[in-house]
Amino acid sequence: MRNYELIFIVHPDLEESAYQEVCDRVKKWIGDLGGTVTKENNWGTRRLAYPIRKQREGQYMLFDMQFDPAKVAELERNMQIVEPIMRYMTVKLDD
After folding, report:
1. For 5-21, how does the pLDDT look when each residue is reduced to its tens digit (9 = 90+)?
2. What angle do CA 70, 3, 81 make, to 5 degrees?
3. To 10 degrees, what angle do helices 16-32 and 72-80 make?
């Protein structure tokens, strides 16, 4: 297991309950693939550096997680199919 950071941007017009549902779905995928979320940090709504899908703002969420490197591609594939997630990035942290 390696340490990773996963940050993703969710559509800004999503209600709080729907936003939490998206975050819970991502956490469930991490757990189902054998990983664990060690820390989560909700950054709230922030202005984007450039428009994404004609949106100027997005809701940011950061997860610190321990995850198997072989399953990162599957997690990212799952994140592509969730409509409210506008962008995501997985970064391996130094050991």
Report:
1. 999 999 999 999 999 99
2. 55
3. 150
Residue found by looking up tokens 């990773």 in the block: 4
Topology classification of domain 2-92: Alpha-Beta Plaits (3.30.70)
Plot region of 8 (φ>0 → left; ψ -120 to 50 → alpha; else → beta): beta
Q: Which residues contact residue 91 at a Cβ distance below 8 angstroms, ignoring those fewer than 6 apart?
A: 4, 5, 6, 7
First to last CA, the chain: 11
Rg (CA), the chain: 13
Q: What pTM was estimated for this model as a whole?
A: 0.89
d(CA 48, CA 50): 5
24-62 CB burial, b ≥16 within 10 A, e <16: eebbebbeeeebebeeeeeeeeeeeeeeeeeeeebbbbe
